[in-house]
Design a protein that fits this description.
Blueprint (H helix, E strand, L loop, with lengths): L47 E12 L2 E12 L3 E5 L6 H8 L7 E6 L2 E2 L4 H6 L1 E4 L11 H11 L4 H14 L15 H13 L5 E5 L7 H16 L3 E5 L3 H7 L2 E6 L2 E7 H5 L5 H8 L17
Parallel strand pairs: 3-8, 3-9, 6-7, 7-8
Antiparallel strand pairs: 1-2, 1-4, 4-5, 9-10
The chain binds adenosine-5'-triphosphate.
């Protein structure tokens, strides 16, 4: 198996540093650390792969993302977690340029996403929720098209596409139409497209959902290698064990707000696991299941 060529280290890559992310959040529960109240750092420095400032999105009366401030250190593996409907996808969609913010600013590698979208998008690879692909292209054609669209020379695209298809176990499906791909295969070909131009930042919405365990292991290795080469990975997930395994940093969202963010160990605090910390931070409650007693009546 040949490894993907991630090219030169990402511009502005730095070792992870403490994440400051001031926010008027509710106090954290129990023995967990209080949410950091540091002053916002300069969003244009090279130390921040991503900086959000007062980022807000409303849909009618619904405030999906509520004045979010967040700094993602360059070189970090950053997990974005939160209950269903917390605002993770809405946040990532605004960062990737798919959704117009109602208010606030977003800086990728110091570039204002909505002031200079082309420059910002050149710095990102995106695996969005609700994948929309060119269904009538084969996987290989899709990568070739997207690589050329990114301005890469044809021979570089071909070489990288071949490596990525091989590593992600899609070589045999390279000539198959994307329309005929399974859910997991679609996720993998989109991840390949996100990696193709070796961007300094990867934004991945639930990257391992629907991916088989062998491919999931490969993707974890690829992402770890990418980060070791200087890249920054931001991904949303509901799988706390995965976040604990991979992430250097984590942000917990609830009801459109960041309720905790920072280095993984700091956010976990004295809780036994990130899962326990998450439960307390988002005000989780055990559900009473007596009403389902009919399930045992057979
Ligand atoms: N296009 C839309 N129109 C109206 N409301 C929306 C729209 N998109 C998202 N929302 C609402 O915004 C809130 C945040 O949704 P979002 O998809 O960002 O949450 P999430 O944290 O990604 O959830 P999940 O973990 O379930 O994927 C939800 O209440 C959702 O119903």
């Amino acid at each position: 198996m040949s490894g993907p060529d991630f090219g030169a280290p990402a511009p502005g890559s730095q070792p992870p540093s403490a994440t400051s992310a001031p926010q008027g959040a509710e106090p954290s529960a129990g023995s967990l650390p209080a949410y950091p109240a540091a002053a916002p750092s300069d969003p244009r420095t090279a130390q921040q792969a991503l900086a959000l400032r007062d980022l807000t999105k409303t849909f009618g009366d619904k405030v999906a993302v509520d004045h979010v401030n967040l700094d993602v250190p360059a070189g970090s593996f950053f997990g974005l977690v939160g209950p269903n409907g917390a605002g993770k996808t809405t946040t990532l969609s605004m960062v990737s340029g798919l959704l117009v913010p109602t208010a606030g600013r977003i800086f990728v590698d110091g570039v204002d996403v909505w002031a200079d979208p082309a420059a910002a998008k050149a710095r990102m690879g995106v695996l969005p929720e609700g994948l929309r692909l060119f269904e009538r292209l084969s996987g290989a054609e899709l990568l070739s098209y997207l690589g050329r669209l990114r301005g890469l020379p044809a021979d570089v695209v071909n070489q990288r596409a071949t490596s990525l298809l091989d590593v992600l176990d899609l070589s045999d499906a390279g000539d198959k139409l994307v329309a005929d791909y399974s859910t997991g295969m679609r996720k993998k070909i989109t991840l390949a497209a996100a990696l193709l131009h070796s961007p300094p930042l990867l934004l991945l919405d639930e990257p391992l959902e629907a991916v088989d365990p062998v491919s999931a292991r490969t993707i974890r290795t690829v992402l770890t290698q990418y980060r070791q080469a200087g890249g920054t990975v931001i991904f949303s997930s509901h799988v706390m064990a995965l976040v604990e395994e991979l992430c250097t940093h984590v942000a917990v969202m609830a009801a459109g707000r960041i309720v905790a963010a920072g280095e993984l160990a700091t956010v976990r605090g004295s809780a036994a696991s990130l899962d326990d910390a998450f439960f307390h931070l988002v005000g989780g409650q055990e559900r009473h299941t007596e009403g389902l007693s009919w399930l045992q009546s057979r």
